[in-house]
Design brief:
alpha/beta, binds oxalic acid, binds manganese (II) ion
Length: about 600
């Protein structure tokens, strides 16, 4: 049944935004191929995009953003809930009134001389009860074109909108791209996003972080599901059975590579299918199992370090119909970045369009990206479009830690697993502006993305574990441990399949483990490291729980929890105390 009210309210909102921003024209996007081609042609003409070599990279373009606009601006990102406490101590907060008063002048007339694109999009598979509709209004053709890659855009969304009780509104304008006049504001009570002053994907492609994580996490708590910063993969074992796993790592910590893992030749019969590389929406289904969908339709992933060695499936994905942002350009018109296969070019154009030679700093920005359709990925799961989603057997949390966190461990139960997620820490990366390489608490990898008070978020996680007896097992991994000489102890990438196999074995009650204060770790025999040629003593390091380091960790975790005052669930303090006692050796339970 069509609901004229959803359509009428969309029309009214578009008019209101047009009155405010005063564009030259309003373009309703239908998501068609012809429209996409037209956008690319227009941007190639006005210099917004540079076509890449059409033979080696058909349908590929390079976009360069403003040099001050290359990563998510967490310090300019706000949750504008009525009540400050609902945003919590880990979010910036602005009152809805103040946000309107500050942002309206920035939007006023901001689209003069530009087109206003109305982009309806669907998050999640067509026909899925878990999918949701949003509409982004933007004055950036780059954003409109990117949304055709990242979402199911246009007519399918309009059809769904007409049947939906509501949709998430997002107003975006490039403004003048000045960080002084840049704000990314979320009004969760109104399911509204206002973003001005940035063209960077994480700030400007509103369906992704702003809707599918910040607004969706708020909706998920109200509606009883989970919106998470997680990849989703299917692990196929010899014989063909596929088990699905969701994994949360902070930005630029290898979610995309894990989601597309290609096992080495030694792991015959094993295969990984990609369902998603960044976001999972998870609901308990009628059979009590937790089902995940990937709300996105494309990948917006980090270029540097991506190669045939680290991610051959991604390399196959981005050979065509891909928009690159802030990578370098070789003289032959092909994209280049640090860590790409083959020789370092003896000259190139850097990410800012300047001549570059080896030794002259980074040619590609460390957070340079590509935007590519998921359907082009050779590892894409046959379940990618399944409206029912995929049943999740294991949830993995993980961070980038040179020390402290062992290669893998399993939580004792759901409640302990929530504590493991809530207390996790990771070294910061270039995906957000700010210092790189410092350890910060990043619970469930959601610190920049949880749209409400994280104390309530932890409570919501605890509650979700009581909904069903079929809740997945929870694990923690760390691929990034370094030895005394600073080199990585674990080879990572394709070899991570060995850890996934142990995790699978645990979910089946088959793989052996030793009980330690922090959780169950693999016995050295239960983790297959045959043929790996790990350095002397590496396995010992990888599977060690250093009690002294963990005691320091415990204090850091406590400091983090204290920020939430009384709002933090007592269960987490209880788990914290239990861990302290186990580390002291006074409690082996
Ligand atoms: C991303 C991020 O772009 O997490 O996915 O920053
Ligand atoms: Mn991400």
């Amino acid at each position: 049944m069509s609901s004229p009210s959803a359509r009428a309210s969309l029309d009214g909102w578009v008019e209101e935004c047009a009155r405010l921003t005063q564009p030259d024209r309003v373009v309703w996007c239908d998501g068609s191929e012809a429209e996409y081609t037209r956008l690319l042609e227009e941007m190639s003409r006005d210099g917004t995009l540079l076509p890449l070599d059409p033979v080696t990279h058909p349908g590929c373009y390079l976009h360069r953003s403003h040099p001050s606009d290359v990563a998510r601006s967490e310090n300019l990102t706000f949750i504008c809930s009525q009540n400050r406490d609902d945003a919590g101590p880990t979010n910036n907060w602005m009152s809805p009134q103040e946000a309107r008063e500050r942002l309206e002048p920035l939007f006023r007339g901001s689209m003069k001389g530009r087109a206003l694109y109305v982009v309806p999009y669907l998050m999640g598979p067509v026909g899925s009860p878990y999918s949701k509709v949003g509409v982004e209004i933007t004055d950036s053709a780059y954003v409109a074109a990117s949304l055709r890659i990242m979402t199911r855009m246009g007519r399918v969304a309009m059809n769904r909108l007409e049947e939906s009780p509501g949709f998430v509104r997002g107003l975006h304008s490039l403004g003048d791209l000045s960080p002084e006049r840049r704000f990314i504001c979320h009004f969760p009570e109104q399911k509204l996003i206002w973003s001005v002053g940035s063209g960077y994907g994480g700030n400007a492609l509103l369906p992704k972080k702003c809707f599918a994580l910040r607004i969706a996490s708020w909706m998920a708590r109200q509606e009883g599901w989970l919106a998470e910063h997680m990849l989703i993969l299917g692990l196929e074992e010899p014989g063909g059975t596929v088990t699905y796993i969701a994994a949360a790592f902070p930005s630029a910590c290898g979610k995309t590579n894990l989601a597309m893992l290609v096992p080495p030749a030694s792991q015959k019969g094993w295969r990984v299918w990609t369902v998603g590389d960044d976001i999972a929406w998870m609901h308990f289904g009628p059979d009590g199992r937790l089902y995940a969908i990937n709300p996105e339709a494309g990948f917006f992933a980090v270029a540097p370090g991506t190669s045939a060695r680290t991610n051959p499936s991604m390399m196959a994905t981005i050979g065509r119909d891909t928009i690159y942002t802030n990578v370098a350009l070789r003289p032959d018109g092909t994209p280049w970045w640090e860590g790409l296969d083959g020789p370092v070019p003896d000259r190139a154009i850097d990410w800012q369009g300047r001549p570059w030679q080896p030794g002259a700093g980074k040619a590609a920005h460390p957070n340079s990206r590509f935007t590519a359709p998921a359907r082009q990925c050779p590892a894409i799961s046959p379940k990618f479009d399944d409206p029912a989603g995929v049943p999740i057997s294991a949830i993995i949390f993980g961070g980038r830690r040179g020390r402290v966190a062992p290669l893998v461990y399993e939580a004792f139960d759901w409640r302990h697993g929530v504590f493991v997620g809530a207390s996790m820490g990771s070294e910061t990366t270039a995906a957000a502006t700010g210092q790189v390489g410092v350890v910060r608490r990043d619970p469930m990898a959601m610190i920049p993305f949880c749209g409400y008070n994280m104390a309530d978020y932890f409570r919501h996680w605890l509650k979700m574990g009581t909904v069903s007896d079929e809740a997945p097992s929870i694990f923690h991994v760390n691929w990034f441990q370094t030895g005394p000489d600073g080199s990585y102890l674990w080879p990572g990438f394709g070899e991570n399949i060995r850890v996934l196999r142990w995790i699978l074995g645990r979910t089946r009650g088959q793989a052996q483990a030793v009980r330690t204060p922090i959780g169950h770790l693999p016995t050295p025999e239960s983790l297959d490291v045959s043929g790996l040629r790990l350095s002397e003593g590496a396995l010992g390091y990888l599977l060690t729980v250093d009690r002294d380091l963990w005691k320091t960790e415990l204090e850091d975790q406590a400091q983090f929890f204290r920020r939430f005052g009384d709002r933090i669930p007592q269960e987490l303090w209880d788990e914290h105390e239990r861990l302290r006692r186990r580390l002291d050796g006074s409690d082996e339970s």
